[in-house]
Fold this sequence. Notes:
Blueprint: E1 9-12, H1 25-34, E2 38-41, H2 50-64, H3 68-71, H4 79-90, H5 103-115, E3 122-123, E4 126-132, E5 142-146
Parallel strand pairs: 1-2
Antiparallel strand pairs: 3-4, 4-5
Helix pairs in contact: 2-5, 4-5
Amino acid sequence: KHAPGVPRILVGNRLHLAFKRQVPTEQARAYAEKNCMTFFEVSPLCNFNVIESFTELSRIVLMRHGMEKIWRPNRVFSLQDLCCRAIVSCTPVHLIDKLPLPVTIKSHLKSFSMANGMNAVMMHGRSYSLASSGGGSSSKGNSLKRS
């Protein structure tokens, strides 16, 4: 309102203290969607979604200033990009840490996921939710569904 055109994201901090939550997640998501912001819940203590939130904010800045060609040049994707795309397309970002991979690769996958608009809660005014394709509380079969 006071600074139109300034890129914004909504960050819910201290996810590791969710039991002391003062703003319900759905209320924060609704506020973010109403104000055309991407919503992230982060935990600096666990290093969860910190890099991803900054990556998304950086991406928005680059896109708004007409630098999309720098960010996504017309090129053939590398084998690493194709592998990352395949993994993050079927793995929710919060489950990447559970994959049997080295920490540096997990970090790269999370950053790739958020930088490429995959597994995000809300992107460009569109909200997404994690939908389970099976019964029970198992995390297997989860996928993103546009709401």
